[in-house]
Amino acid sequence: MNVRKLGTSGMEITTVGFGAWAVGGGGWAFGWGPQDDDDSIAAIVHAVGKGVNWVDTAGVYGLGHSEEVVGRALVRIPASDRPLVFTKCALVWDPQNPRTPPKRISAPASLRRDCEASLRRLGVERIDLFQIHWPDDYGVPVEESWGEMSRFVDEGKVGAIGVSNYGVELLERCERVRHVDSLQPQFSLIARDSASDVIPWAAAHGTGVIVYSPMASGILTDSFNRARVVAMAEDDWRRQAGNFNEPALSRNVALRDALRPIAGRHGTTVSAVAVAWALAWPGVSGAIVGARSPEQVDGWLGGGAVTLTAADLSEIAAAVERTGAGSGPVRPAGS
Length: 335
What we know:
The protein has a domain at 12-218 and 283-306: NADP-dependent oxidoreductase domain (TIM Barrel), CATH 3.20.20.100. The longest helix has 15 residues, at 108-122. The chain contains 12 helices and 12 strands. The two termini are 23 Å apart. It is globular. The protein is an alpha/beta fold.
């Protein structure tokens, strides 16, 4: 399993990490429909057994349930093989109205409650990487939020701190308070905009980058088709998402199909090619890849070891332009 440094944090992470969003199950605003906890635990244990050395979750996933499931999986893994645990904070939900979208609150007192709750649900003494999930919506200055995150490190509750879905202006303001150890942006062949601003910023500032949804939440996989969308659970957030509906859906499926010959040449899956493409960009440390079963883990595991050639990247760039899928830069600079 290939590893890369996560910026200047001192951590070395495998190029693919286990994403526990879907592990949270259904019944909340951004759920993936019903999910069996035993399958989730088996998937996490399987991924770690195959060499994956980090798991990414969040307090909001399943309204705390994902962290609890990750905690149960950690108990089944020998201490010598324990993966790094990354989680996220600053999304506050209403337990009485679970289908209502959570509020984006980064007030220091709220972050502290989030931190303590995550430590308890995960069953760990220290979170290896604690990240603000989305920018605050209630006027809290980012300097106050980042100052509290810094205190978590000083107190030993957290090993490193990062942000997710932040733009360059907020990153600059955080960096003036304390170094931003990591950035978590959305990044895939369909969502490429991060390559034009925040990923280069991170590379220039020694900030590690772990990208999320490199397989576009399931579109860039071998088995995806229109029937899968129709069959999704009523509470699966993807049913209403633009990329899973026309006119974007046809473009996205056409792009997925264009990856099949490349996967064939490398003797791997479309999923692995999609992950490898995200990892080919300078500054990207690792990719968060979700799974709901051990079999799904095996579908993308190879992406961390596939090296796309210049010809592959040219073929992919041409396919992006031909299909009109997504937006943003189409190939890594200098490749």
